[in-house]
């Protein structure tokens, strides 16, 4: 099952590229010329998002490395107890929406401290596999097109994150027992 | 919103660093994290160029048209404001596919393309459209089928069955995506 899935994962990009090229070839598109024409935009787009990336990397970096993140975790600890979320995975709950590489580090830490096959390790792994970095994604995508007012994006994304956290705990409890 | 979050992340971070005598950490963050942001953006140039080139071919060959036709029932529900056959739809779908299969940088490139296409339909260029919000919310709540890095961490930690969390992750991610879509549909009608 896993092997099949990972083979699919590896072959998805070559498959898409092959389909696009073969289809274009059959339809008589000047492949090379058209590709170059499109590729030209790549440079400007990547450069355009750079300032947004820098802004968000610096802010998150300072927040994390100053120790402010840890303090925030301690403040939020009593609230999450209500949902039956184990205290140990709390750093992950808070880190996950903020920083992808940061939360990977947290998972690593949790798994090596409490064991990968215990309840806490499984919940942490499930959570990591079921949520995405919110602030970074919003900064990059909205930044790329210069949107200032993101409206309900953040609130809906946070609701969905909370749902992912609660679902992770409940599913792990159902599947593995606690 | 982002203005406040950004300010408070930095301001609180610096305050904490001062009180804990950790002020040196700020200096190294400013130097190192900005550099990794620049490296990331530069690294994105190549993959952006490849996907934008591929998208251009697919557009000219008519593949995008037939592709978005097939997915119309889903995209109509999620993005009712985007016209049929609009290039935004195919960029959105391709972003979702690459995202699911864990091709992070390709997904980012296609996602930015999708945002640019959606912005062409936007009357108020400073304000996100319903379609943009929906797209980002789905993007942020749906994740790869095989979370390879997590599996690697578990295997390294000596797990007897590192892959046992794939199923639970899929369930949790489905729940979060559904909650995200419903929240977006409800919240978009306010104001």
Structure in words:
The complex is a heterodimer of chains A (about 180) and B (about 190). Chain A folds into two domains: about 1-40; about 50-175, no CATH class. Chain A is globular, with a radius of gyration of 21 Å. Chain A starts with a helix and ends with a helix. In chain A, helix 7 (about 120-130) runs antiparallel to helix 9. Chain A has nine helices and no strands. Chain A is mostly helical. By secondary structure, chain B is an all-alpha fold. Chain B has one domain (about 35-185). Chain B has helices at about 1-20, 25-60, 65-70, 70-80, 85-100, 105-120, 130-140, 150-155, 165-185.
Q: How are the SSEs ordered, and which strands pair?
A:
The complex is a heterodimer of chains A (178) and B (191).
Chain A: H1 2-26, H2 31-48, H3 50-65, H4 68-81, H5 90-95, H6 100-114, H7 119-130, H8 134-145, H9 153-176
Chain B: H1 2-19, H2 23-61, H3 63-70, H4 72-78, H5 87-100, H6 104-120, H7 130-141, H8 148-156, H9 165-187
Helix pairs in contact in B: 1-2, 2-6, 3-5, 5-6, 7-9
Distance between the termini of chain A: 25 Å
Uncertain runs of chain B are none
Structural class of chain A: mainly alpha
How many H/I helices of chain B? Answer: 9
First-to-last CA distance of chain B: 17 Å
What's the story with the biggest beta sheet of chain B?
Answer: none
State the total count of DSSP E strands of chain A.
0
Q: How many alpha or pi helices of chain A?
A: 9
The whole-angstrom Rg of chain B is: 20 Å
* Total individual domains of chain B: 1
Residue share in β-strands of chain B? under 5%
Q: Which features would summarize this protein structure in a list?
A:
heterodimer; A: 178 residues; mainly alpha; 80% helix; B: 191 residues; 9 helices
Question: What's the short story on this structure?
Answer:
The complex is a heterodimer of chains A (178) and B (191). By secondary structure, chain A is mostly helical.
């Amino acid at each position: 099952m896993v092997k099949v899935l990972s083979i699919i994962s590896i072959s998805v990009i070559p498959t898409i590229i092959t389909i696009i090229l073969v289809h274009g070839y059959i339809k008589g598109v000047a492949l090379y010329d058209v590709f170059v024409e499109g590729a030209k935009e790549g440079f400007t787009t990547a450069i355009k998002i750079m300032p947004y990336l820098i802004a968000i990397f610096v802010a998150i970096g300072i927040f994390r490395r100053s120790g402010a993140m840890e303090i925030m975790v301690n403040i939020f600890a009593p609230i999450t107890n209500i949902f039956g979320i184990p205290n140990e995975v709390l750093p992950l709950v808070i880190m996950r929406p903020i920083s992808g590489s940061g939360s990977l580090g947290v998972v690593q830490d949790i798994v090596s401290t409490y064991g990968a096959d215990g309840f806490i390790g499984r919940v942490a792994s499930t959570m990591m596999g079921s949520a995405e970095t919110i602030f970074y994604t919003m900064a990059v995508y909205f930044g790329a097109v210069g949107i200032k007012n993101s409206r309900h994006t953040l609130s809906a994304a946070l609701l969905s994150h909370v749902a992912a956290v609660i679902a992770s705990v409940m599913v792990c409890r159902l599947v593995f027992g606690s | 919103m982002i203005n406040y979050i950004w300010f408070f992340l930095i301001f609180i971070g610096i305050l904490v660093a001062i009180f804990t005598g950790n002020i040196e950490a700020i200096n190294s963050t400013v130097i190192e994290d900005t550099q990794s942001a620049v490296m990331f953006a530069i690294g994105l140039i190549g993959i952006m160029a490849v996907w934008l080139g591929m998208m251009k071919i697919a557009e000219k060959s008519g593949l995008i048209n037939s592709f978005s036709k097939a997915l119309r029932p889903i995209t109509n529900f999620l993005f009712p404001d985007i016209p049929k056959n609009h290039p935004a739809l195919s960029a959105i779908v391709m972003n979702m596919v690459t995202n699911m299969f864990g091709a992070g940088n390709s997904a980012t490139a296609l996602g930015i393309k999708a945002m640019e296409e959606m912005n062409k339909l936007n009357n108020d260029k400073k304000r996100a459209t319903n379609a943009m919000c929906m797209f980002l919310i789905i993007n942020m709540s749906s994740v790869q089928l095989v979370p390879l890095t997590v599996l690697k961490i578990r295997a390294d930690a000596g797990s007897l069955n590192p892959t046992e969390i794939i199923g639970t992750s899929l369930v949790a991610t489905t729940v979060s995506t559904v909650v995200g879509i419903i929240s977006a549909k409800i919240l978009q009608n306010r104001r």
